[in-house]
Every structure is written in C-alpha cells, then in structure tokens.
C-alpha cells in the first residue's frame, strides 16, 4: 500500500469546474470532475474495485471520520462524480446514485419511513411503484394513502400526525398529466411534511422540483439522463442531512443496491448530451402530438405543451419544455391500439422511455399478458384500456410521424 495515499475526498475538493456561474449544459459536462486529480484523463476513470486498502490503522481512523471509504457498496469514485454532478444540476446539496429507479424508491421509503408512519402518494404512479406501495410497504406497517393531488387541497384532509412524506411523479407516468409542485409542496410544508418528486419524465434539463420547493427528487437514470437504453440506475437528490440518512441506512445496509461503476460511467457519458437531447425530444414530441390531435382516428392526446392539455399552464410554470413523452387513445379503443401497435415499422414496441429510439407501449395489453404469471397485475388508477404511451426518440420527426400515421390509418 503506497504511503502517499491521497487524503479521502482530495480528488473532489472544489474542482476548477465547480463554478456556479457556469450554465446548465456546461455543468452536465464538467461539474465535479477535475482531470488533474485523475492523471489528466479527460473522461472519468472507471474504478472496478470492490474494496479500498488503507495505509495504516490510523489512516483508517482518519478516513472513518470522513465517512469511511472502505468498500464499494458505500463508495466508488466514478459514482461519486455522478452523484455530485446530478446534485449540482438538480440544485440539491447532495445525491445518491443506486442500481435502478426502483432501488432509489426502496432506499427512500425504507430509510425515511418506519412502522406506523404514513406515506401519501398521488393516485397514479409508475406501475412498479404502485406494486411497492400497495403490496410491499403495508407488509412493513407503513400505511400508504393514495390521494388525487391534481387538487392540492385534497392534501389537507389526508395529512395526519403520522404522515412523513408526500410522493408523486410529474409528469405522471403513463398519463403525461402534470401536478403543481409548488402548490403541493406549500400545503405539505404547512403541516411539516417533506415532499419527494419523481421527475423522471422531465429530467433536470426541463424541470428542477427543488426550485419549486420540493425536498427530494427521484430519477430513474435509466431513462432520459442516461438516454441510450444501455444501463439501469436511479438517483435521489436533496439536502445533505436527508441524503446522509439515505446513504447510511438505505444503501449501506437495507437495500445494498449499489450501481456498477461501469453503469455510472455510461450515465456520465449520456448526461453530457442531455440538454441537446431534451430539445430534440421536446420538439419532435410536440410535432407528433399536434399531428395526433388533428387526426380523425385519434380520440384524445395528452402532451403537457399542447394548449389543450388541462395542466398546460402548470407545465409552462414549472417545465421549460414539454419532454418526449405523450399518451393518446384511438376511437377504436383497446383493439384499435393492439392493431396499430402491430403495424408500426420504425417505432419499437417496448417498455422504458427516454432513449434515442422511439419506444411505444400499450399498458392494457401488457397488463393482460402479465396476469397469468402475476395474478395481482392490474391497471393503474386513472389509466384507460385505450391508452398508448409513446416516448418520442431522436429520429427524424417526419419518419416517426409517418410511421404512426400509416399504422393508425391501416388499423
Ligand atoms: N419512475 C418512473 C416515472 C419510471 O417510469 C420508472 C421506470 O419506468 C421508474 C421510476 C423505475 O425506474 P427503473 O426502471 O430504473 O427501476
């Protein structure tokens, strides 16, 4: 073991790129990484190690005071660059990156909530988050209270002295509905309750919930932040005290859901083009939404930056652009959706979202297909059998529109 081992955290102390006056896109590329501290490598190194040697017992004692960097479940330099960068661009004090978005939700709830506590959630959530709040958390004595947060005043009746956290997505998966972060947060805070927002559908390039008062932000990094469909990960961003709890209890010994440093590297790489990608996703999705809105076979379209969207004014207040996610239904309903899906030639039939490739799914047929093996599979509250969810990718928008149009017209 070398005797001139670095002081813990020396490689992260105030890198030359940590100036707060730098623009958002610049920080997605540079924040938190000083090449001079890593052999002048322009790209962050991938530290494939499960453990870290210490020079002496005394050196270990000194490191322990700084958080103990002994083992890769708790610390990895590549992941730490990602955590610092994400916290910075989200406007948070600290960040935690774990193995998936669901691992982030698990770390959040199992670290902050205990038996007898109450969690308020919006009535519509990503389907596996629904499974967790309906099936898993109650087994551990955590009461989950679904509320329609489209009307923030509903919170007043739902909050009790046992309420510890309010959790919702905006835009909401898969509806692309929009919830008012500032209004919900104001009411929750009036009762001393923390608010966590899943901002996966927007990404920090378009929406930063902490700027609207939220306490914690959750992302599935699997989606827009990585953007290339080749890694799973999730993040929690917020104040330093809460993040310390999430790291020390959630990651260290409850979920243990550490991300591979190779995935952290891929996500750091993807993040560098987030700003550009979100501009393109948003422009193409708006064009697709307008085409669908005018098409006679289409019954409804939900896209936050369409004037017809019920949450349009809220979306304009808290998002800088509409993102690439939209939902729509055909007059031909469930069967029409199945037929249309099968006629697509370019857009990929797949779950997930936020990739360069356009991805489309029909939750009702996915749910029916799952029921023989997962008896509890059911449609999420508020999601109709006709709903088709589209993640508009980075292809030429005319090609995406042409593929949709021919599939709709042939069905
Ligand atoms: N939150 C939202 C809004 C999602 O859409 C997803 C996944 O689709 C998740 C969380 C879970 O993330 P992951 O798939 O990375 O576990």
TrEMBL record:
<dbReference type="InterPro" id="IPR015424">
    <property type="entry name" value="PyrdxlP-dep_Trfase"/>
</dbReference>
<protein>
    <submittedName>
        <fullName>PLP-dependent aspartate aminotransferase family protein</fullName>
    </submittedName>
</protein>
<dbReference type="GO" id="GO:0008483">
    <property type="term" value="F:transaminase activity"/>
</dbReference>
<keyword id="KW-0032">Aminotransferase</keyword>
<dbReference type="InterPro" id="IPR054542">
    <property type="entry name" value="Cys_met_metab_PP"/>
</dbReference>
<dbReference type="Pfam" id="PF01053">
    <property type="entry name" value="Cys_Met_Meta_PP"/>
</dbReference>
<keyword id="KW-0808">Transferase</keyword>
<keyword id="KW-0663">Pyridoxal phosphate</keyword>
<dbReference type="InterPro" id="IPR015421">
    <property type="entry name" value="PyrdxlP-dep_Trfase_major"/>
</dbReference>
<dbReference type="InterPro" id="IPR015422">
    <property type="entry name" value="PyrdxlP-dep_Trfase_small"/>
</dbReference>
<dbReference type="InterPro" id="IPR000277">
    <property type="entry name" value="Cys/Met-Metab_PyrdxlP-dep_enz"/>
</dbReference>
<comment type="similarity">
    <text>Belongs to the trans-sulfuration enzymes family.</text>
</comment>
């Amino acid at each position: 073991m070398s005797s001139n081992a670095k002081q813990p955290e020396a490689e992260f102390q105030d890198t030359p790129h940590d100036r707060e006056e730098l623009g958002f896109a610049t920080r997605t590329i540079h924040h938190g990484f000083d090449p001079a501290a890593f052999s002048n490598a322009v790209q962050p190194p991938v530290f494939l190690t499960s453990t870290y040697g210490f020079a002496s017992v005394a050196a270990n004692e000194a490191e322990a005071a700084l958080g103990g960097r002994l083992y890769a479940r708790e610390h990895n330099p590549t992941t730490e660059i990602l955590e610092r960068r994400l916290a910075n661009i989200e406007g948070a004090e600290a960040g935690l990156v774990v193995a998936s978005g669901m691992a982030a939700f698990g770390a959040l709830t199992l670290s902050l909530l205990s038996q007898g506590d109450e969690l308020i959630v919006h009535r519509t959530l990503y389907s596996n988050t629904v499974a967790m709040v309906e099936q898993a958390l109650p087994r551990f004595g955590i009461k989950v209270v679904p509320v329609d947060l489209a009307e923030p005043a509903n919170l007043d009746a739902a909050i009790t002295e046992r309420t510890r956290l309010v959790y919702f997505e905006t835009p909401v998966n898969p509806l692309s509905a929009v919830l008012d972060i500032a209004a919900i947060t104001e009411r929750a805070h009036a009762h001393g309750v923390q608010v966590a927002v899943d901002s996966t559908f927007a990404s920090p390039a378009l929406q930063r919930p902490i700027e609207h008062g939220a306490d914690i932000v959750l992302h599935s990094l699997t989606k827009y932040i990585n953007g290339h469909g080749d890694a799973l990960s999730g993040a929690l961003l917020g104040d330093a005290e809460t993040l310390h709890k999430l790291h020390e209890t959630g990651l260290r010994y409850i979920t243990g859901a550490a991300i591979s440093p190779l995935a952290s590297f891929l996500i750091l790489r993807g993040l560098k083009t987030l700003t550009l990608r979100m501009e393109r996703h948003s422009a193409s999705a708006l064009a697709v939404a307008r085409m669908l809105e005018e098409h006679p076979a289409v019954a409804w379209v939900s896209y936050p930056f369409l004037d017809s969207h019920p949450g349009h004014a809220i979306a304009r207040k808290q998002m800088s652009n509409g993102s690439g996610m939209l939902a729509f239904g055909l007059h031909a309903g469930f069967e029409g959706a199945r037929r249309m899906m099968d006629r697509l030639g370019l857009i990929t039939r797949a779950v997930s979202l936020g990739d360069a490739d356009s991805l489309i799914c029909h939750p009702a047929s996915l749910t029916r297909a799952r029921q023989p093996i997962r008896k509890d599979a059911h449609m999420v509250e508020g999601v109709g059998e006709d709903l088709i969810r589209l993640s508009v990718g980075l292809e030429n928008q005319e090609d995406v529109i042409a593929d949709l149009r021919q599939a709709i017209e042939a069905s």
